[in-house]
């Protein structure tokens, strides 16, 4: 499932305590004070990573804590600082502090933002030594780290929308060429939620299949069309399995177009590339060419694809890279 909003709680580490210690010297009961300071607690950072499916990893993890600083020690030794907590979030995340309302946007890969500071370490007794008080017995405790709740929303607008009948191979394609892990099945309506994948920085959206009558509420895909409303381009997948149907592939293609138009005219005015899928099911290469020619009469770019053929996938990706240039 694609998760585009989570709420987390995070806390900076507590500072280590300062300590009271004395220098040990022969014949002197109490040498000078040498209790060291506590280490700083770790801070909490967010770091942007190019992985739009990252938020779903945090489905069951809502708590993020940096570690505590170590206490000081004798011999003027500082406690070790606590370890920072680095929360990886997808590029495109907007982080809102629930307490303050402040917002941070993660726009670039590698961008690192401080969310919460760790607590300061306490002071050891050496720090309190003065000319008047040479044997201070005072040390202070480390401070607690800052803490807060954050809402993280992933604001993405997909660049390419994958559409087609159920079973056309939309999710399979997404899984093959992006880091997405969408569910694939040999039955209709495998996809129940939109899936997103990242293709060299371009976001592909896979939505549930559309069927005839979708605009009247049949099937699932219709209500998801809003996810592709703002895409720059549509990829319309038509499987060679539909060749055997009455009217063939062109008819199923036109059905879907009709449904799209019924939802929103702007969807049929969008740039569209037609992808004829599952070419491996066609024994005669001439039949593939014939179907391709027929679709080309519609005046659109027509690609063919078999996910069982590596060369075919490679050629397809090359075309897609070309298409995305300047988009
Ligand atoms: N032979 C062949 N089968 C394919 C190819 N691509 C996908 N399939 C199979 O087609 C079936 C449907 O694939 P999906 O990717 O789930 O199809 P979908 O369009 O996402 O389907 P919905 O989510 O139901 O709309 C699966 O059994 C896939 O293994 C292909 O290139 N060749
Ligand atoms: Mg699917």
List the helices and strands and how they pair.
Layout: E1 5-11, E2 44-49, E3 63-65, E4 85-90, E5 93-97, E6 103-105, E7 112-116, E8 147-154, E9 160-164, H1 170-177, E10 195-199, E11 202-206, E12 233-239, H2 248-263, H3 265-269, E13 271-277, H4 285-296, E14 301-305, H5 310-324
Parallel strand pairs: 1-3, 2-4, 9-11, 9-12, 12-13, 13-14
Antiparallel strand pairs: 1-8, 2-7, 5-6, 5-8, 10-11
This protein binds guanosine-5'-triphosphate (GTP) and magnesium ion.
Residues 170-171, 190-191, 206 line the site of magnesium ion.
The number of helical runs is 5
Question: What ligand molecules are bound, each kind once?
Answer: guanosine-5'-triphosphate, magnesium ion
Uncertain parts: none
End-to-end gap: 27 Å
Shape: elongated
pLDDT averaged residue by residue: 90
Roughly what percent helix? 10-25%
- From the alpha-carbon coordinates, what is the Rg to the nearest angstrom? 30 Å
* Percentage beta strand: 15-25%
Largest sheet: 6 strands, mixed
Which sequence of SSEs, written as H and E, runs from N to C? EEEEEEEEEHEEEHHEHEH
Describe the strand arrangement of the main beta sheet, using strand numbers. 10-11-9-12-13-14
Helix-strand makeup class: alpha/beta
In total, the number of strands is: 14
